Amino acid sequence: MDLKKTKKAHPWHGIEPTTENAEFIRAFIEIVPSDTVKYEVDKASGYLCLDRPQKFSNIVPSLYGFIPRTLCETKMAERSNNVLARYDVEGDHDPLDICVLTEKDVTHGDILVKCRPIGGIRLLDHKQADDKIIAVLKDDAVYGHMEDIDDLPKDIARRLIHYFTTYKDIPGEVKKRMEFMGLYGADEAKAVISASMEDYQEYIKNN
């Protein structure tokens, strides 16, 4: 047996995000709606780790994870600054987050899925770009035909926005941590993904 061929790839560095069909990408899923704790990939080892229990009754409304070989740094910050007519936005130093919509009950994370990006949510977390790409699972019976954010029912979009603008809030605190800056469609989502891939390549070149 060739052990090199059986070694598990690092989910951030070792997986090609693009597919044979340019319409779809690969996403690594860390969390599913039934999870009562937050899981996150350890950047050094690639193992899925327990980050923290969900302290409050926030339930992620979709599959949630990141796009391999992406990073939110200079190019991502530059794009946010240009769109928002600002100069103070920075990258959050993490892979690009993605929400994948499906009608199926996926029972656990630590999996790869093929999905089509249809848009995204532009968010700021303490002046750091923290976009969430919105995608639909390939061949999903309910969401699989959708190609742009306009195809998504408004209530689903509102549910995603509400979750990501409140999931880091602490009850009793007046100031909200996450700022919602806008919703965008498939073309901008592809541009954001491209910028994060450029940031990743720059990171690899310098490390």
Structural commentary:
A hairpin with a 6-residue loop joins strand 2 (37-41) and strand 3 (48-53). The chain has helices at residues 3-6, 74-84, 154-166, 186-205, and strands spanning 25-31, 37-41, 48-53, 63-66, 90-91, 97-101, 111-125, 128-129, 132-137, 178-185. It has a five-stranded mixed barrel with strand order 1-4-6-9-7. It has a two-stranded antiparallel sheet with strand order 2-3. It contains four helices and ten strands, in the order H-E-E-E-E-H-E-E-E-E-E-H-E-H.
Q: Which terms summarize this structure?
A:
4 helices, single chain, two-stranded antiparallel sheet, 23% helix, alpha+beta, 207 residues
List strands and helices in order, with pairings.
Layout: H1 3-6, E1 25-31, E2 37-41, E3 48-53, E4 63-66, H2 74-84, E5 90-91, E6 97-101, E7 111-125, E8 128-129, E9 132-137, H3 154-166, E10 178-185, H4 186-205
Parallel strand pairs: 5-8, 6-9
Antiparallel strand pairs: 1-4, 1-7, 2-3, 4-6, 7-8, 7-9, 7-10
Q: Quick gist of this model?
A:
This protein is of the alpha+beta class. The chain has helices at 3-6, 74-84, 154-166, 186-205, and strands at residues 25-31, 37-41, 48-53, 63-66, 90-91, 97-101, 111-125, 128-129, 132-137, 178-185. The longest helix has 20 residues, at 186-205.
Class computed from helices, strands and strand pairing:
alpha+beta
The dominant shape is globular
N/C terminus separation: 32 Å
The overall pLDDT, averaged over residues, is 91
Strand order of the largest sheet: 1-4-6-9-7
Order of helices and strands: HEEEEHEEEEEHEH
